[in-house]
Amino acid sequence: MVVEENQKEILISWKEISAYLGCETRTCQRWEKESGLPVHRFIDSSRSRVFAYKQELNHWLKRRPYTDQKNPKKLLYFLIPMAALLIVCFMFLSPLSSPEPHDFRINGSDLVVLNEKQKEIWQYHTETMRLKDEEFYRKRFQVRRDSDNSCEVFHPLIVMRDIDNERQKEVLFAQRSIVPNRMKCILSCLNNKGKILWVFEAGREMIFGKKQYSSRYEIGGFMVVDLEMDNSPEIIVVSRNLYMFPTQLAVLDSKGHLLREYWHSGRILDFTFYDLDHDEEKEIILSGCNNEYDKGFLAVLEPDFKSGGSPQTGYYKSPNLKQNVEKYYILIPNTIVDKNEYKRGNVIKIHISDERIIYAETKSGLCFEFGFNFELKEIRFADRYEDMYNKAYREGIAKEKFSVKTMDELKTNLMTQVLYYTDEYWSQAPLLARNQVPD
């Protein structure tokens, strides 16, 4: 028999074939069925009795990759479930591995960042003693807000948004403590995993007049805004000295670098942004009080203003700061109500309407209405001003009760007391600073 003559080259059972190929018997049987493994059967014998030639098996092994490609259905049956499994894993596990900051809690001295489902994703340990509580920060989260009594504006101290256009939210966090003189005044930027990207320390030692002022500051608030409308936002940070009048407005880029700064001899209480002259760049509009003149103020800075300070003299002027860097600087007059109720007049809030009106509201309830060229158009009186005026009358400070007559007289006097600064003098005309000519 041929089989007997070539016995050494023949395998005569599934056991011998599988041993020669180094796999299980079931694998060989499957290969015969699906991939054409060369297996023969003895004539007139059971189907289970098989034999195979080693030479044929070796040849099959060499061409096996090509043979497997002949039947792609098997590969698809494997790949489709695997692809579906990968998609499911991506959908359910990806949010856990790279979550987006959405909300927060304050836990002692820690900022706890939450995802959209209010699950904690990371904590930032501030190492600040007696950090302000969550209610305080909740009023200063994401956007600028008016207080309930309309006498104060809350600027953000926590902002969660993509500031570097990398499609992931950063967290900007300004630390505020119950005991501010025991902590550094810093704004921290953290990525979506809680890693610190940069830190900006606000304020520094400054000289005004001949006196050097402390480097102790407190961040009043910050806002993220694209001033030049170039899809590269800036961060505007306003910080106030803890003990005296200097206030710093700092402009940072998205990497935390200081681009420019403006120093004011008095408090900056509100700030907003608007493209007043339609040149596709937003001006910075500021309000507050000027300590030297004991009056409220309204100022406008170009987005690319040169670093400097407010228009001051003597004790309130810094020898190291360039002056006349504003586009407009306006002093807002006081009344007997301001002098009776407050140390000095404050413009606490700015509002810009679609009718191209800029509203500058004082703490006492006066509202000065300016056009976009800052020509004074109207002065209005809120109810709280009337209440405080009548209180001054009862205390013998005002000569008569508040009435239409007193309101008209006050308005006439106040209209002439609004002063505009140029690089040389104060004027009652709405002139731009630096001898600019309005449009």
The gyration radius over C-alpha positions equals: 38 Å
Counted up, domains total: 3
Overall average residue pLDDT: 85
Largest beta-sheet characterization: 6 strands, antiparallel
Q: Span between N and C termini?
A: 113 Å
Describe the protein.
This protein is α+β, with helices and mostly antiparallel strands. The protein folds into three domains: about 1-95, Multidrug-efflux Transporter Regulator, Chain: A, Domain 2, CATH 1.10.1660; about 100-200, no CATH class; about 220-240 and about 260-439, no CATH class. Helix content is about 25%, strand content about 35%. It has ten helices and 29 strands. It has helices spanning about 1-5, 15-20, 25-35, 55-60, 65-70, 70-95, 135-140, 335-340, 385-395, 405-415, and strands at about 10, 40, 50-55, 105, 110-115, 120-125, 145, 155, 160, 170-175, 185-190, 195-200, 205-210, 210-215, 215-225, 235-240, 245-250, 260-265, 270-275, 285-290, 295-300, 310, 330, 345-350, 355-360, 365-370, 375-380, 420, 425. Strands 19-20-21-23-28-29 form a six-stranded antiparallel sheet, with no helix packed on it. A five-stranded mixed sheet has the order 15-16-17-18-22, with no helix packed on it. Strands 9-10-11-12 form a four-stranded antiparallel sheet, with no helix packed on it. A hairpin with an 8-residue loop joins strand 9 and strand 10. The chain is elongated and about 130 Å long.
